[in-house]
C-alpha cells in the first residue's frame, strides 16, 4: 500500500511563486481564521437537518401516526447518498466552488421552506403537510450531498486541522440545536402553539447560518493566505477542481503542463486504487455510522420508555449524544489519545457494536441514568473515531488524490448512515407499526 511520496515535497512552481521564506509564511498565515471558518461551514452543513430532528416533538404532535423521526431521517438519506455518489464519480472534473455554493444556497432555501410550509398549512397536521416536510428533508439531503463531500475533499488537501474543525462544526450544529431546544421548551409552554413557536425559531436560525456560510465560503475563505497556498499546491500537482476557488482568491492558475513534460504531476491514483489502498479506513467510517444511526435518533426517541424526566427525557438523550459527539471530535487534538494505528482504529470501531446489546438491556431493565451514560459514550466514540479516520487517511497523497479520497470516505460515511437509518427500524420488530 505504497503512497505517493510527493506529499512532503514543495512543488517547484510554488517555490518560484512564493520564495522559500514566503512558503513558510503562506502555510500558516490565516490558519486560525481558517479553522474558525471551517467550524462555521461545518455548522451550517447540518444545522437545518439537525433542527428538523431536534423539533421531533413538534412533528410527533402534528403527525403522530407517521413515525416522523424515522421517516424524515429515512427520506433524507437516499438523496444525500445518491448526490454524493454522483459527485464522487465525477469528482476530478467538478467545479468545487460552484458545488459547495449551490449546496449552501439550497440549505438556505430548504430552511426557509420549513417556515413557508408551516405558514401555508397554519401549523396543521395531515398527510399533505407531512409530504411537504419529507420533500424539504429530501432537499436538505441533496444540499448535504453537494457540501459534505465537496468540503471534505477540498479541506483534505489542506492541513488536518481544517478537516477536524469542519467535522467538529457538524457536531456543534447538533449541540447548539439541542441547547436551543431546551431554551424554547422552557420559554414556550409545552402546547401546540408553544411547540410551533420553537420550530419556527429553529428554522429562522437555520436560515441565518446557511446564509452566513454562503457569504463566508464565497468571499472570505478563498482569500485566506493559507487556503490560497494549499490550493495553489494542489493546482501545481494537477488538480482542476480548485481553479474557480483560486480565481476567487485572486490567483490565476497556470495551465497544467503536458504529461510528457512533467509526468510526476500527471500521475494520479484512480478512485479504485484509492479505495483499495484505504479499504480499512472506508470500512471504519462505514461501520461507525451504521452503528450510530441504528440507535440515534429513532431508537432514542421512540424505544427508551418513560421515566421521571417525562417529556424532557428524549431531549436530554439527544443533547447527551450531540454534546459528547462534539467533545469527541476535539479529543484527537490531544496527540496522546489520538488513534493513528490502522489496526487499532479497526478494533475500536468493531468493539463499538457491543453497544447494541447494552442499549437493548438498558432500555428494558435499566434506569434513565444508565441510558444517558450509554448515549454519551455512543456520541463520544462516534466523534473521536470519525475525526481520527478522516484526518489520518489523506496523509501521504498529492492534492488531487486527497480531494478524491475525501469524497470517497464521505460516500462510505453516508452509506453507513443510510444502512444505519434502515437498520433502526429493526427495533420495531414485534412492536407493530
UniProtKB/TrEMBL annotation:
InterPro entries: Eqnu_transpt. It is found in: Membrane. The keyword Membrane applies. It comes from the Eukaryota. The keyword Transport applies. Keywords: Membrane, Transmembrane, Transmembrane helix, Transport. GO terms for molecular function: transmembrane transporter activity. GO terms for cellular component: membrane. One of its GO terms (biological process) is nucleoside transport. It is a multi-pass membrane protein. The chain crosses the membrane at residues 32-51, 71-89, 101-120, 126-143, 155-180, 200-221, 281-300, 312-332, 344-363, 369-393, 405-428. Belongs to the SLC29A/ENT transporter (TC 2.A.57) family. This is Equilibrative nucleotide transporter 3-like. The lineage of its organism: Eukaryota, Viridiplantae, Streptophyta, Embryophyta, Tracheophyta.
Amino acid at each position: 500500500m505504497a503512497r505517493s511520496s510527493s506529499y512532503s515535497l514543495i512543488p517547484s512552481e510554488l517555490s518560484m511563486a512564493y520564495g522559500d521564506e514566503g512558503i513558510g509564511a503562506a502555510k500558516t498565515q490565516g490558519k486560525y481564521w481558517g479553522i474558525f471558518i471551517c467550524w462555521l461551514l461545518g455548522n451550517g452543513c447540518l444545522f437545518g437537518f439537525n433542527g428538523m430532528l431536534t423539533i421531533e416533538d413538534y412533528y410527533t404532535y402534528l403527525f403522530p401516526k407517521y413515525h416522523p423521526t424515522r421517516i424524515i431521517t429515512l427520506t433524507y438519506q437516499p438523496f444525500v447518498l445518491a448526490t454524493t455518489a454522483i459527485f464522487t464519480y465525477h469528482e476530478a472534473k467538478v467545479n468545487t466552488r460552484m458545488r459547495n455554493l449551490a449546496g449552501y444556497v439550497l440549505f438556505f432555501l430548504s430552511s426557509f421552506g420549513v417556515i413557508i410550509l408551516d405558514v401555508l398549512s397554519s401549523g396543521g397536521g395531515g398527510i399533505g403537510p407531512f409530504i411537504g416536510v419529507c420533500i424539504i428533508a429530501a432537499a436538505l439531503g441533496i444540499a448535504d450531498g453537494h457540501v459534505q463531500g465537496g468540503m471534505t475533499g477540498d479541506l483534505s488537501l489542506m492541513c488536518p486541522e481544517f478537516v477536524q474543525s469542519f467535522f467538529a462544526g457538524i457536531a456543534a450544529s447538533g449541540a447548539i440545536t439541542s441547547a436551543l431546544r431546551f431554551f424554547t421548551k422552557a420559554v414556550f409552554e409545552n402546547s401546540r402553539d408553544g411547540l410551533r413557536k420553537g420550530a419556527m425559531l429553529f428554522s429562522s436560525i437555520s436560515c441565518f447560518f446557511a446564509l452566513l456560510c454562503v457569504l463566508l465560503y464565497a468571499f472570505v475563505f478563498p482569500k485566506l493566505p493559507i487556503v490560497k497556498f494549499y490550493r495553489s499546491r494542489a493546482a501545481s500537482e494537477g488538480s482542476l477542481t480548485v481553479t474557480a476557488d483560486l480565481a476567487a482568491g485572486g490567483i490565476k492558475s497556470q495551465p497544467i503542463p503536458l504529461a510528457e513534460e512533467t509526468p510526476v504531476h500527471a500521475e494520479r491514483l484512480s478512485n479504485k486504487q484509492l479505495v483499495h489502498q484505504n479499504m480499512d479506513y472506508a470500512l471504519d467510517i462505514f461501520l461507525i455510522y451504521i452503528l450510530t444511526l441504528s440507535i440515534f435518533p429513532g431508537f432514542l426517541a421512540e424505544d427508551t420508555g418513560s421515566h421521571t424526566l417525562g417529556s424532557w427525557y428524549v431531549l436530554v438523550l439527544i443533547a447527551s449524544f450531540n454534546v459528547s459527539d462534539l467533545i469527541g471530535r476535539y479529543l484527537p487534538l490531544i496527540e496522546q489519545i489520538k488513534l493513528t494505528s490502522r489496526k487499532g482504529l479497526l478494533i475500536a470501531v468493531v468493539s463499538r457494536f457491543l453497544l447494541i446489546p447494552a442499549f437493548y438491556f438498558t432500555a428494558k431493565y435499566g434506569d434513565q441514568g444508565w441510558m444517558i451514560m450509554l448515549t454519551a459514550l455512543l456520541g463520544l466514540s462516534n466523534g473521536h473515531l470519525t475525526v481520527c479516520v478522516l484526518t489520518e487517511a489523506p496523509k501521504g497523497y498529492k492534492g488531487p488524490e486527497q480531494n478524491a479520497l475525501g469524497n470517497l470516505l464521505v460516500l462510505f460515511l453516508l452509506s453507513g448512515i443510510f444502512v444505519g437509518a434502515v437498520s433502526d427500524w429493526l427495533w420495531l420488530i414485534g412492536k407493530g407499526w
